[in-house]
Write a structure and sequence with these properties.
By secondary structure, this protein is α/β, with parallel strands linked by helices. It is 40% helix and 14% strand. The protein has 14 helices and twelve strands. The strands form two sheets. The protein has a seven-stranded mixed beta sheet, sandwiched between helices. Strands 8-9-12-11-10 form a five-stranded mixed beta sheet, covered by helices on one side. The structure holds pyridoxal-5'-phosphate. Pyridoxal-5'-phosphate (PLP) binds next to helix 4 and helix 5.
């Protein structure tokens, strides 16, 4: 957008393309292909297509392009490529830029599928990956190899223990070694993200989470410079097939319009819940970045406008007692998703992190009593009462 509009205005208007009908709401172009006026026009478009010219939906589609322009505008990125899921974005960005012999440094506290891509997939193709404790800058410094480390990968806010990584400091270390910094920023959301300003080169979202925000569609997006998106990401993605469907792009595009309102209300709810449970004798820990007890509270205040929509509780209990708590909840639904308008609860030790060996679970703070809450749009008072009632049932 050329205008100096604020994010909420841009979330509603940026990237809109209108057809010859002048439709009010963004059109859903549910089409795989495009027809050409003549054989010569087809030839010309295959040679080079203009901004309003499309060839095939695996390469691009008007509805998908509207979503890409709108989110790029909100994130302050030059360009974006929308993908079929968050994992298509993570794996696509990495596979598109890396080759055998390259070295990658990554934080260890990652979403399980991200860990799989880095640990099991990239290494199969001759990419060497070193894992570090992302909160320890000394480990980042020791792990990067000037000239050989091509990429640094991290999640700014870790799942499920909500540890923060000092992105600005990691970017300095990575850039000094000549590496690009790729950030999976799902937990921070596009509304609270300052990743590009803090020095990140590539920002990745699973749109499945807060961008959809109502638990309907899968999607993802890679954001970066025009050069990176069009010369590195696009050729890889368009030939390997991880494109976002036009229908999902339309849902995500409309999701962006209300994203700011939703995540601010959800973050306010999360803070209210965290404050109400802090100090409850039935809990051994309440983990929320904007609570004074968080180990990186100062960094959280400095780098995040709110504490986000997720908090974690440790009941300090065994699995059976923790299951009694989960089963007694009446508003919070047991699931493994997050960022929804409905409040959700996850037991990481037996679901999302089930496959990790016990020593790794312990190292990541994933105890039998740990539960992750994704705060939705319900009234925080009802959520607090639900949690306290379930604690009574333990
Ligand atoms: C959910 C999630 C992903 C994967 O997204 P999908 O849309 O499920 O493929 C990647 N990283 C993080 C941090 C996530 O929370």
């Amino acid at each position: 957008m050329s205008e100096n509009w604020k994010p909420r205005t841009r979330a509603v208007h940026a990237g809109t393309r209108r057809s010859q009908y002048g439709e009010m709401s963004e059109a859903l172009f549910l089409t795989q292909g495009f027809v050409y006026e003549s054989a010569a026009a087809a030839e010309a478009r295959f040679l080079a297509s203009g901004p309003d010219e499309f060839v095939y939906a695996r390469y691009g589609n008007p509805t998908v392009a509207m979503f890409e322009s709108r989110i790029a505008d909100l994130e302050g990125a030059e360009d974006a490529f929308a993908t079929a899921s968050g994992m298509a974005a993570v794996s696509g960005a990495l596979m598109a830029m890396l080759r055998a012999g390259d070295h990658v440094v990554s934080s260890r506290a990652l979403f399980g599928s991200c860990l799989y891509v880095l640990e099991e997939v990239l290494t199969r193709y001759g990419v060497e990956v070193s894992f570090v404790d992302g909160t320890d800058l000394g480990q980042w410094r020791a792990a990067v190899r000037p000239g050989q480390t091509r990429a640094v990968f991290l999640e700014t806010l870790s799942n499920p223990t909500l540890e923060l990584i000092d992105l600005e400091a990691v970017c300095h270390i990575a850039h000094a070694a000549g590496a690009l910094v790729l950030v999976d920023n799902v937990f921070v959301t596009p509304v609270f993200s300052r990743a590009l300003a803090q020095g990140a080169d590539v920002v990745i979202y699973s749109a499945t989470k807060h961008i959809d925000g109502q638990g309907r569609c899968l999607g993802g997006v890679i954001l970066g410079t025009r050069d990176f998106i069009r010369k590195t990401v696009e050729p890889y993605m368009k030939h390997t097939g991880g494109a976002m469907s036009p229908f999902n792009a339309w849902v995500m595009l409309k999701g962006l319009e209300t994203l700011d309102l939703r995540v601010r209300a959800q973050a306010a709810g999360a803070l209210a819940v965290a404050r109400a449970l802090q100090g409850d004798a039935r809990l051994s820990r309440v983990i929320y970045p904007h609570l004074p007890g968080h180990p990186q509270h100062d960094l959280a205040l400095r780098s995040m406008e709110t504490g986000g929509t997720i908090l974690s509780l440790d009941l300090g209990a065994d699995k059976a007692a923790t299951f009694r708590f989960l089963d007694a909840l009446r508003i919070f639904r047991i699931t493994n998703n997050l960022g929804d308008s409905k409040s959700l609860v996850t037991h990481p030790a037996t679901t999302t992190h089930q496959r990790l060996p016990d020593d790794q679970k312990a190292a990541l703070g994933i105890t039998p009593g740990l539960v992750r809450l994704s705060i939705g749009l319900e009234d925080p008072e009802d959520l607090i009462a639900d949690l306290k009632g379930a604690l009574d049932a333990v």
